[in-house]
Amino acid sequence: MENFILISDPQVRGKLYNFIIYTLLFSILIRTIVLGFFLLAGGSSVANSILYDPLHHYQYGIIIIILALIFKKLLKNKFLIILAIGTSLIFEEYTILFNDLNIKLPYFYLSSIDNISFCVFAAISLIFVLFLRSRK
């Protein structure tokens, strides 16, 4: 269990753990913001225009990842965080991404099952990665 992720260099392994932790934390933060927005503004014209907008935030996540990879040398220390933000935008909206790829899930984005499964997966993954990181 000590070297669960098969990366021998401890510095690279530490960066990978940090990337996963950042991604999970940003995903939880984004989901909280989205849920809060729709709870507060649900049914308003602003909420409907955002909800039915053809651009989704997973698409912005893809753009952020591409830009981060292009400007990696310029970003230096912020590269990992920006990459995690882009990845978390994709991860948070996985149901819509799967739907766009014609992979049908038995539930929809922001449904009760989606929210519960997303939070449980993120929490368990976060605890697991924190445990692995503490065993350096």
Search tags:
single chain, 136 residues, mainly alpha, globular
Radius of gyration: 17 Å
Task: Give the H and E element order.
Answer: HHHHHHH
Low-pLDDT stretches: none
Mean pLDDT, to the nearest integer, reads 87
What percent of residues adopt helix (DSSP H or I)?
Answer: over 70%
Describe the overall structure.
The chain is mainly α. The protein contains seven helices and no strands. It has helices at residues 10-41, 45-51, 57-70, 72-75, 79-92, 94-100, 112-134. The longest helix has 32 residues, at 10-41. The protein is globular. It starts with 9 loop residues before the first helix and ends with a helix. The model has no long low-confidence stretch (mean pLDDT 87).
Could you provide a short overview of the structure?
This protein has 136 residues and is mainly alpha-helical.
Layout of secondary structure:
Blueprint: H1 10-41, H2 45-51, H3 57-70, H4 72-75, H5 79-92, H6 94-100, H7 112-134
Helix pairs in contact: 1-5, 1-7, 3-5
